[in-house]
């Protein structure tokens, strides 16, 4: 996708905020517990290589990604730290992962059986590093039955030149919920299944950001630190307090490209869903749903000169319109996410209006929006 370098629309990434969010969490961990930075989905829209560099400087020991492609991008950028892919990778790509010492999760013996000939065909490769995924209640990936897990272990032990068990893990469905009943059920099932192993692997891990922040006793010896890296409370505001202040790292700014006065009854945008109630000043902002600023945000607001200005009319693919308190010249700053004067719009504010979570808003900001670091950490 082409980046809009020649339009006034920028996602600003505060590297110092990311540094602090990681440093504070590293400082809380037990001595032998490692933090792996979750940088999947282009680091939740913040820029994978940027965030990986800053997280490493802050004390991250490794990285988690969703795709093998993301792991390979980190290797291509000369990151030599351990990398765990969190999603199932098709077995035909097992040799690619092994060659780059990238760890993969498995959920079945069938996957191992399919990967075996792929690895046997290249005997010079190092062993494939495996993390045994346990589905203790998330319902996504992982072994659910004791015997299936034991069968997988037996298969791995029978092929020591191709596979090594590096880790075992699960993912909690409700770690960000004040009601911890279901969470405790998952903990009990995980502990039971781990006890089936004759020896514990190098990494035993259950903790995403929410678990590490609010259930640190469960951390094991590795945490998968994700959304909190970016200064976002994993619960939204369901659990408002965190062990340390999270510093939001992302803001989104633009400028007015046009301002005009309209009169009572004049229509704005597709479908004429808004008509001026009187003489009004309307400003145009060069961002639209193709940038991830979605149509459902009609009626929300942005900030201009410290004023909340309503989004009027339907958001277009590349532009939207706002009602201004007075005439402003083209080039006046518009804050979509961030601060203007004593006013602030957070990702959570946008998410609540959109009836979703702030993770989704951040990830929806498309590559067409240029990214720029502020408060940079030395490269």
Structure characterization notes:
Helices cover 28% and strands 25% of the residues. The chain is an alpha/beta fold and 379 residues long. The protein folds into two domains: 15-230, Alanine racemase (TIM Barrel), CATH 3.20.20.10; 250-345, Lyase, Ornithine Decarboxylase, Chain A, domain 1 (Beta Barrel). The strands form four sheets. It has an eight-stranded parallel beta sheet. A hairpin with a 2-residue loop joins strand 18 and strand 19. It is elongated and about 80 Å long.
Present the secondary structure layout.
Elements: E1 9-14, H1 15-28, E2 34-38, H2 40-45, H3 48-58, E3 62-65, H4 68-76, E4 83-85, H5 94-99, E5 102-106, H6 109-120, E6 128-133, H7 146-158, E7 163-169, H8 181-194, E8 203-205, H9 209-214, E9 222-225, E10 250-255, E11 258-262, E12 267-268, E13 274-275, E14 280-285, E15 301-304, E16 307-312, E17 320-324, E18 333-340, E19 343-345, H10 347-354, H11 358-364, E20 370-374
Parallel strand pairs: 1-20, 2-3, 2-9, 3-4, 4-5, 5-6, 6-7, 7-8
Antiparallel strand pairs: 1-10, 10-18, 11-14, 12-13, 14-17, 15-16, 16-17, 18-19
Helix pairs in contact: 1-3, 10-11
Binding site for substrate: 140, 317
Function: Catalyzes the interconversion of L-alanine and D-alanine. May also act on other amino acids.
Keywords: Isomerase, Pyridoxal phosphate
CATH superfamily of the largest domain: Alanine racemase
User: pLDDT average, as an integer?
Assistant: 97
Any guess at the CATH architecture of the largest domain?
Alpha-Beta Barrel
Give the CATH topology of the largest domain: TIM Barrel
- Which class of the largest domain in CATH terms? Alpha Beta
Strand content: 25-35%
Alpha-beta classification: alpha/beta
Total count of helical runs of at least 4 residues: 11
Q: Give the fraction of residues assigned to helices.
A: 25-40%
Output the radius of gyration: 24 Å
Strand order of the largest sheet: 8-7-6-5-4-3-2-9
What is the overall silhouette? elongated
Summed up, the domain count is 2
Would you report the number of β strands?
20
Low-confidence stretches: none
